Amino acid sequence: MPDAVAANLPMKDEPPAPVLLVTGLSGAGKSTALKALEDLGYEAVDNLPLSLLGPLLAVPGGHRLAIGIDARTRAFSPELVLQAMAEHASPARPIRILYLDCSGPELVRRFSETRRRHPMAQDRPAGDGIALEREILSELRRVADVVIDTTDFSTNDLRRAISTRFGAPGHKALTLTLMSFGYSRGVPRDADLVFDMRFLKNPHWDPALRPLTGLDAAVSEHVKSDPAYAPAFGTIVGLLTMLLPGYAKEGRAYLTVAFGCTGGRHRSVAVAEAAGAALAAEGWVNSVVHRDQAAGAVDDEPEAGQAAAGERKGPE
User: 59 pLDDT exceeds 80?
Assistant: First the structure.
């Protein structure tokens, strides 16, 4: 089963996956919360018409579902929301309400900064719309299972709060990609961190290893036999295991760590594979991509010290 699909299904020992009804005041962060839940493996539906809420809640399934309920919806009624919950909630399919609150002055500031009109005060001050919406939603706030006040929250603060409360145990929302590449073909544009492996001895200069790649055991052993490999590799993996929790905590959804060598076929491939295994052992699910591993050698300047003087030299 693909990881992307498996991540959205509950494990056998996990409690039933609840349906989350995400609601609250306009400007309090509902869109950010739904995106954060989506990153945690929920299927997110926003601005659902109330007429479709009951049929959607009636659909069986063990997947996580987050539904955005907006007071702006035509014929919105907290009573209809609670009625749909009462009709379809069960021990096998619990339904929870996440309510996002915020102080009035902060909401006024946010609408002023974005130059947006409050949806319930198109021709009146934003404060009037905020007060009206707060009154309409008061019953849902009263019965909400989780209330998050975002008055003093940044976007990242809210994402962290969502991850803390609704992430599956051990879940790491960060999508980590390890990439090997060849400098002769350029540094990857989407790389966040880049490590240069050209200080390691080059398998290209061994005729028996030249046709192979870093995916072959002989090349991997050759790279790892360099005395500089072990201390450098340990330092790199140690640095990554120190940095990755910080990136995840700050709400980063994607991180690409690139390892480069001259041609992108030998050293960078071997190191990326080893780093992927080491990080996976630490609990960091990752994918390893080899951008240039299958590409043929290209003309380039030789690296100093990799071949004897007068010998014709070329890149990996």
Answer: no
